[in-house]
Amino acid sequence: MDISLIDDFKVDWGLSGKSSRTASLYAGYLEAFLRDGGGVSLAAAKAWLLSTSHVSVRRKRAQALRAFASWCCRNGFQGMEWARDIPLSAEKVVPQLTVSAEDYQNALKKVRTLRNRIVIEMLWSCGLRRSELARLQISDVDFAGGFIVIRHSKTGQPRIAPLSPSARKCLRRFLMKRDEGSLLGMSSNAIRLMLQKHGLPSSHAWRRGWAVHSLRGGVSEASVRAAAGWSSGAMVARYTKALSGELAMAEFARVWSGN
């Protein structure tokens, strides 16, 4: 395992459209393995994984080694074939709060200012991360097309996300006399504090709720993934797994209603 290859691995990871944050995380683990692993072998890797009691960290370490090994194999570098046999620790799945349509309606009743209402509308209709919402500029809003442009995302790739009619209506009122600058004029932390002040769910809970609500409404997994800016289908799969039966019944109902 040549440490000089780690930088090339990071670059290729980013060029493939995957999260640069994940690439940096994996690179850090790979460098730590070379530094603390006591050798480059399956036995050394297992010992290194067991050196932490945190299951989530152990799993990420193993994923980093596996990802690097796959990259080495694709690029003709030998010496990491053993990494394919590294076991992944099973991580306990803890149920997480997911905002519902009822929560959305209740949130609109709690907020008093138009700007705070827009925060709720945007979280519910766009599936944005909190940092993405804070960075939005007025020029990123396309009223005619009914979408917003997210220029800076976690994956480093720009994307577009849908704007609901309700969100568009609020934004038109809010931007009536403005045509440039920050959309909300709020930092990511200010958005977090606003949600807390009103006793509302976190932005992550809103993002999960947006995904689940979209899937229930018949939006395809591919469209949800694209609008959310997920580099893989793993997150969508997590939601569809829990909703598989319900989604199947809804699809059959739509087919039968058309006959």
Report the portion of residues in β strands: under 5%
The strand count comes to: 3
Dominant shape: elongated
CATH class of the largest domain: Mainly Alpha
Mean pLDDT: 86
Q: Compute the CA-based radius of gyration.
A: 22 Å
Q: Could you give the distance between the termini?
A: 60 Å
Structural class: mainly alpha
Largest β sheet strand count, sense and barrel closure: 3 strands, antiparallel
Helical fraction equals 55-70%
Helical element count?
Answer: 12
Integer tally of domains: 2
CATH architecture label name of the largest domain: Orthogonal Bundle
Order of helix and strand elements from N to C terminus: HHHHHHHEEEHHHHH
CATH fold call of the largest domain = hpI Integrase, Chain A
CATH superfamily of the largest domain: Intergrase catalytic core
Strand arrangement in the largest pleated sheet: 1-2-3
What does this structure look like?
By secondary structure, the protein is mainly α. The chain has two domains: 5-85, DNA polymerase, domain 1 (Orthogonal Bundle), CATH 1.10.150.130; 101-257, hpI Integrase, Chain A. It is built from twelve helices and three strands, in the order αααααααβββααααα. The protein has helices at residues 5-15, 20-36, 42-49, 55-74, 101-110, 114-126, 130-135, 165-174, 188-197, 203-216, 221-228, 234-257; strands at 141-142, 147-150, 159-162. A three-stranded antiparallel sheet has the order 1-2-3. Strand 1 and strand 2 (147-150) form a beta hairpin. Helix 6 packs across helix 10 and helix 10 (203-216) runs parallel beside helix 12 (234-257). It starts with a helix and ends with a helix. The mean pLDDT is 86.
